[in-house]
TrEMBL record:
PANTHER family: DEHYDROGENASE, PUTATIVE (AFU_ORTHOLOGUE AFUA_2G13270)-RELATED, PTHR45033. SUPFAM superfamilies: GroES-like, NAD(P)-binding Rossmann-fold domains. Gene3D superfamilies: Medium-chain alcohol dehydrogenases, catalytic domain, NAD(P)-binding Rossmann-like Domain. GO terms for molecular function: oxidoreductase activity. Residues 10-323 form the Enoyl reductase (ER) domain. Transmembrane segments: none annotated. Pfam families: ADH_N, ADH_zinc_N. It comes from the Bacteria. This is NADPH:quinone reductase. It comes from Parafrankia irregularis.
């Protein structure tokens, strides 16, 4: 089969098309013939060697296609071996494309619970773009963040997959979403998805500007921080507010003043992708609500995965980048 293989860690140039053997059959696993796969920042970290993936390796976590044993249209749930508990994943949990061959290929083999029905009304590109960010964001907002209709949400960022998905899901649930960005066009794009407004997070007073957009300037009920700016995120909260953290692209360390934190009755909540039960909850949510589909920035042929990674790292796009497997 055709696939994108990285023979070493490094720049996008390590991603090269190659002919490789089809994945072997395994008891309890199913094979999906992929029509599209989507990029995530996680793929960049895999490519850079952050997860010590075996070499040579096929990266990729997201995909959409057909289950070859049943001919059912499916999307790939990239959360492997989550375990029975929902509070946190078990010790064996990993993301597809870390140590198991991923979705930058014609075929991928996954545990049977990880081939889930493709949601109605989505194109192949939109379906491929949904699982990782959809599941991650659904868990962050609802399973962990307990977002409710009528509450206010601040999303750090405006243009990435998590940010655009958060605005779409929160708006569908009846929450009021505000975003941050350093680019006016990205805030404008978020407004088109349903965001009520946005602030420029490159300005020194952006926290105050964001709080001013909440009722009576009281702050946000929930902040979604996918970059690691904890101190500023907590300052954006209303008394009793929750900050859900799911990334560290802007910082690996954070310092918080302790007294304001406990006097504010704040919650700091960590989260990651999600369980099969979270995925089932996302699919029910999509059935029960009118939700804007995943935003697609651009598509590339599978063979141009390196170019797709260059665009992802440039950070100029809005939404998800998708590889087509025609």
């Amino acid at each position: 089969m055709r696939a994108i293989v990285m023979g070493s860690y490094g720049s996008p140039s390590v991603l090269q098309p190659a002919d490789v053997p089809a994945p072997p059959e395994r008891a309890g696993w199913v094979t999906v013939r992929l029509a599209a796969s989507a990029l995530n920042w996680h793929d960049v970290l895999v490519r850079q060697g952050r997860y010590s993936s075996p070499l040579p390796h096929i990266p990729g976590a997201d995909g959409a296609g057909v289950r070859i044993d049943t001919n059912e249209a499916v999307v790939v749930l990239p959360s492997l071996f989550w375990g029975r508990g929902d509070a946190a994943p078990g010790a064996d949990w990993e993301i597809l494309g870390d140590h198991h061959s991923g979705t930058y290929a014609e075929l991928v083999t996954v545990p049977a619970e990880c081939a889930v029905p493709r949601p109605r009304g989505l194109s192949l590109a939109q379906a491929a773009a949904l699982p990782l960010v959809g599941l991650t964001t659904f868990r962050a907002l609802f399973s962990r963040g307990r977002l409710r209709s009528g509450e206010s949400l601040l999303v750090l960022g405006a243009s990435g997959g998590v940010a655009t998905t958060a605005v779409a899901l929160a708006t569908a649930a009846g929450a009021r979403a505000i975003v941050t960005s350093g680019a006016t066009r990205k805030i404008d794009a978020a407004r088109e998805l349903g965001a009520a407004g946005g602030v420029d997070h490159t300005e020194s007073d952006w926290v105050e500007a964001a709080r001013a957009l909440t009722p009576r300037g009281a702050g946000f009920d929930l902040v979604l921080d996918s970059v690691g700016r904890w101190a500023e995120s907590v300052r954006c909260l209303a008394p009793g507010g929750r900050c859900v953290v799911l990334g560290a692209s802007a910082g690996e360390q954070a310092t918080l003043p302790v007294r304001p934190f406990y006097f504010g009755q704040y919650e700091l909540i960590g989260t990651t992708m999600g369980s099969p039960r979270d995925m089932a909850g996302l699919l029910r949510f999509l059935d029960d609500h009118t939700v804007a589909p995943p935003v697609i920035d651009r598509t590339f042929p599978l063979a141009q995965a390196a170019l797709a990674h260059e665009r992802l790292e440039a950070g100029t796009g809005i939404g998800k980048i998708v590889l087509t497997h025609d």
